[in-house]
Automatic annotation (TrEMBL):
PANTHER family: ABC TRANSPORTER PERMEASE PROTEIN, GLUCOSE IMPORT SYSTEM PERMEASE PROTEIN GLCU. Gene3D superfamilies: MetI-like. InterPro entries: MetI-like, MetI-like_sf. The chain crosses the membrane at residues 42-63, 110-133, 145-166, 178-201, 222-247, 283-301. Belongs to the binding-protein-dependent transport system permease family. Keywords: Membrane, Transmembrane, Transmembrane helix, Transport. Residues 110-302 form the ABC transmembrane type-1 domain. PROSITE patterns: ABC_TM1. This is Glucose/mannose transport system permease protein. It is found in: Cell membrane. It is a multi-pass membrane protein.
Amino acid sequence: MAEQLLRAAPELAVASAMPARARALSGPHGPRPRRRFSRRNVFIYGTLALVAVYYLLPLYVMVVTSLKGMPEIRLGNIFSPPVEITFEPWIKAWSTACTGLNCDGLSRGFWNSVMITVPSVFLSISIASINGYALANWRFKGAEVFFTVLVVGAFIPYQVMLYPVVIVLREIGLYGSLWGLVLVHTIFGMPILTLLFRNYFASLPEELFKAARVDGAGFWTIYLRIMLPMSLPIFVVAIILQVTGIWNDFLFGVVYTKPDTYPMTVQLNNIVNAVQGVKEYNVNMAATLLTGLVPLVIYFISGKLFVRGIAAGAVKG
């Protein structure tokens, strides 16, 4: 018996090696790797490239025009890079361009916009985050009605509320002041921010809230020590939305303030639409870029957290 096994051992070894050898000769297994330049990839990346060019071309024209002198602009080639770079249009747009009766450029409007944006963003986000936390974790009588009113308020056109808000601000003595505009931005930003915070807090594990309640934590302790440290992405989303909306606002700024307290966008409109003197396109482009610089920088700094916060807030309603 042992001799028969010894004789059959080489044959068994060859037989066992055959499947492996056959697999090796048959080539690699698994899904075929995709070609890098397939039709699908060419279509996707080609479309993205066209869209990027479409949106970046106006920005390119604005930048190169703001760096040219007026004699070079009058040649008519708006796409050509500047032959001689000059920053005089930027300096004039910031400090000496006329915005109505005043000729101090955008500098005054910039600081007005800062004094409007900072307290408006802080107040609206603080109040909306507390509202969203209460609606998500602390069920109280009338919570659904309150939330419905807020959601409906998010879709009311601003133009409908212009005149009633003017009357309210006049009666409380804030019409024409920066704090009146801060109050307006805080109130009008409340509905959409409350919705965002409510959805985000509702997506957090409910066990954390229940465990904190078992340990005796109250409303403010849970909010400050548990919810806030976990809510950085949604706070970044709220900051970007509010800074962009408030900084770029023109309608409220021109209605609820006066020339001395005009925000930067209103002064930009006065510079670009001036009808007296020579039309300085390089100064107009520089002023436009200066006005849009703040929200653009904030978005580029915190863009990844913005996407995370939007995705987290959309998980659960």
